[in-house]
DNA sequence: GTCTATAGAACGATAGAC
DNA sequence: GTCTATCGTTCTATAGAC
């Protein structure tokens, strides 16, 4: 149930975002969305053509938010390494996982090009933005010249996404934190062996 | 539909494994399992108490299989680095993702301690086994002494699990391969800067 | 814009004949 | 062990009154 100060269509989108995050597309029913939004059957189908249409609105917003949150950290001050570190260490509700990455495990999202598009774009942009920062680190000599920017960007995003998997499996954020620390230790410039 | 040479209960388990992999627990109905297994309603409820019971049998088997597949590579010949590399590069149906890791995104699996247990065990054992190999690499001087075995193990597993997420988002295995190559480039012993 | 009523199908499970 | 019949609920959506 959301604030009465929000329009019905807003409440429907926000309720859908929450449910998609927690239960995925397959596990989210229009009925559950309506109840969470405090809206009737008729309202939902007045504002949206159906479940896929409502889900699309919700996914688009979540994807945009993810991009903004990443940019807030990656576009900040500091060295390339510091910004990558800030991205990896930024506050997260680890056990809830990533609201965007989560959708990639949903067969009906992946099967529908329209629903998959915002997911693909959000993760693609994140990788591209991280690759830029890595390139800065390569140019400045902060990171080993033997590294490939696109590859490292993919590794960074994968570590985060996979960290969620490990955390949810154990029911604790510990493995997520371990994975991140492990990656940071690998990225740390070593001027000499050992 | 599975071979008539398999018992009904076997066919039910195998069909469930396939459907859990593709559609998850929430998205898999007893009805769909029965059709895929070529078994009737009555047969399924004769052999299994219900959907959770059948899913448990399927998840246990998948988790065991994952452990065996990992051990086949990690317990093989070669240096620590070579075995980690072999694990990361081993043949995978990348776009299908990990049949175990996938379940961590399922709210009903995570909410049920009995269903979550085999998932937790499989990924926990994998991390522990990888940590052993990393320790060998640290002892032999193959890997930088500044690294922590448990952390690196978590990073390795996370990269794989997260790589699936990126691959499924784009519809291509390319980002998975990038993430793995990136991790390998970070793990590669560098005796001097650059 | 929102409501209630209704629809046909699928959900997960049980009962009881064979 | 397997079958068909049935159950009450939920799914996603449409219709039509207000």
Automatic annotation (TrEMBL), chains A, B:
Source domain of life: Bacteria
Pfam family membership, one: TetR_N
DNA-binding region range list: 29-48
InterPro entries the UniProt entry points to: Homeodomain-like_sf (IPR009057), HTH_TetR (IPR001647), Tet_transcr_reg_TetR-rel_C_sf (IPR036271), TetR_C (IPR011075)
Keywords in alphabetical order: DNA-binding, Transcription, Transcription regulation
Residue span(s) of domain HTH tetR-type: 6-66
Record-given protein name: TetR/AcrR family transcriptional regulator
Organism from which the protein derives: Streptomyces zaomyceticus
